[in-house]
């Protein structure tokens, strides 16, 4: 059921996306009406959370069934619903994934006391989080700890911090209990920390994973888990993760290798490297080496290069993951994006620079996986077409598992090439996921928007 308005975009961004989804190849294949319908469904489903919470289980540390049992016990301690309502389902094809159905939208009555949160905080609440104090923009004038409040997300970023009321565009997320007085949130010299509102009746009910089995259960979107399996790391290999922060995929690669070999993680922002190292330590992975470095400069032209870290000599890695910086237009739930069209279109040149580096650093016979969490052609299928044209040594490879849709028409790729690509397109099954589609089809199709291409270097 659609309870939120479609994602709010700047008008020229909407027109740009519409031209992508109603391109000539798509119109010739499915017709104007179907193409228009898919585009409208995309705008609607992006503002809603997926119908399953995906947990990647640390099967290098414990068996899936044991993690499932422990997770069930931990969540039952926290859960307001009855324990028998709590479902934790193993994915039938992906051996380290557990899925928890999301209950929603639920019939929740709005209250007169309103707390307003920012869009990022609102998205987290829709995926099971409580409201952390830094995300609160406005609250009732005399809000005290223990007060029942309704939580709303500011859709356009117009609520001023400290507001006592807000009449702008907002959407209802559910009800909670204030864990802090208003004065603690807004009137102290220190930035507020911790939970500001504990959600007790969210519109979409899914467990909060804050502090739950941190070394065994890792929250990760299903397509992001699929990427690691598609890369197919093997024990003893040397693997590069080029844009690695916050390290979820890096750690997954190391786990899939049985922590045998070397996983080099690069990111250009120092505190993000610290986060990768923390995640590796928490998941007890020794094979990860993280460096603060700009991946576009990661190829060394000096044959005498002897250092452990970047830059590296050409042909240094068995496999390379390029999970590229992108416009992020596949993220869900996302009710509003304030980015300009110029910002949305700014990623293609950077992605191509990174591609050049990736191909140079990959050994002959090695595997390169390119992925994004966006829905545009320019950052996905057009990049594949460009890469195949620019690097004759690259050929597309089949992906396993392949649970998403095939690539999208519009970049001039052949039907065979499109079948080798994997595009997670929640709009294609939005009607079914809102009604009766059974597990696991619903979990496989009602995901974030995501794209994966796998290449072999000949």
UniProtKB/TrEMBL annotation:
- A single MF term (Gene Ontology): RNA binding
Annotated Pfam families: Methyltr_RsmB-F
GO biological process terms held by the UniProt record:
RNA methylation
> Does the entry feature the keyword Methyltransferase, yes or no?
yes
UniProt keyword terms in alphabetical order: Methyltransferase, RNA-binding, S-adenosyl-L-methionine, Transferase
Q: Which residues form the SAM-dependent MTase RsmB/NOP-type domain?
A: 142-458
Residue positions of the active site:
373 (nucleophile)
Kindly list the positions annotated as binding S-adenosyl-L-methionine. Answer: 243-249, 267, 323
Family membership noted in the UniProt record: Belongs to the class I-like SAM-binding methyltransferase superfamily. RsmB/NOP family.
Instruction: Report what the protein is called.
Output: Methyltransferase NSUN6 isoform X2
Q: Which organism is it from?
A: Parambassis ranga
């Amino acid at each position: 059921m659609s309870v939120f308005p479609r994602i709010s975009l700047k008008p020229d961004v909407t027109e740009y996306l519409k031209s992508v989804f109603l391109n000539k190849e798509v119109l010739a294949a499915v017709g104007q009406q179907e193409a228009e319908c898919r585009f409208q469904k995309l705008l609607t489903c992006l503002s809603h959370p997926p119908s399953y919470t995906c947990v990647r289980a640390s099967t290098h540390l414990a068996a899936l069934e044991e993690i499932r049992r422990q997770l069930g016990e931990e969540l039952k301690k926290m859960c307001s619903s009855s324990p028998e309502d709590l479902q934790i389902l193993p994915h039938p094809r992906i051996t380290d994934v557990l899925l928890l159905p999301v209950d929603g939208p639920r019939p929740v009555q709005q209250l007169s006391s309103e707390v307003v949160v920012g869009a990022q905080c609102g998205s987290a609440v829709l995926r099971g989080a409580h409201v952390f104090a830094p995300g609160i923009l406005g609250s009732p004038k005399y809000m005290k700890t223990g007060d029942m409040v309704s939580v709303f997300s500011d859709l356009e970023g117009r609520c001023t911090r400290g507001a006592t009321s807000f009449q702008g565009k907002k959407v209802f997320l559910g009800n909670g209990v204030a864990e802090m007085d208003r004065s603690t949130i807004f009137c102290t010299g220190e930035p507020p920390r911790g939970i500001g509102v504990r959600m007790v009746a969210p519109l979409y009910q899914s467990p909060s994973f804050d502090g739950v089995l941190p070394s065994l259960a890792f929250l990760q979107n299903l397509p992001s888990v699929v990427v690691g399996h598609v890369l197919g790391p093997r024990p003893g290999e040397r693997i590069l993760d080029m844009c690695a922060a916050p390290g979820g995929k890096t750690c997954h690669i190391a786990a899939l290798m049985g922590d045998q070999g070397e996983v080099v993680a690069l990111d250009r922002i120092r505190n993000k490297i610290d986060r990768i190292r923390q995640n590796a330590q928490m998941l007890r992975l020794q094979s990860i080496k993280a460096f603060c470095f700009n991946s576009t400069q990661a190829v060394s032209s000096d044959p005498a290069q002897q250092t452990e870290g970047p830059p590296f000599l050409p042909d240094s890695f068995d496999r390379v993951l390029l999970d590229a910086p992108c416009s992020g237009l596949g993220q869900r739930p996302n009710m509003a994006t304030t980015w300009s069209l110029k910002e949305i279109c700014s990623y293609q040149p950077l992605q191509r620079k990174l591609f050049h580096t990736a191909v140079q650093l990959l050994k002959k016979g090695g595997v390169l996986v390119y992925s994004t969490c966006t829905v545009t052609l320019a950052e996905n299928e057009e990049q594949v077409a460009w890469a195949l044209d620019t690097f004759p040594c690259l050929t597309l490879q089949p992906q396993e598992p392949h649970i998403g849709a095939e690539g999208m028409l519009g970049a001039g790729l052949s039907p065979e090439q499109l079948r080798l690509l994997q595009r997670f397109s929640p709009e294609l099954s939005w009607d079914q996921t809102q009604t009766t589609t059974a597990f696991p089809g619903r979990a496989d199709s009602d995901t974030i928007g995501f794209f994966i291409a796998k290449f072999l270097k000949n």
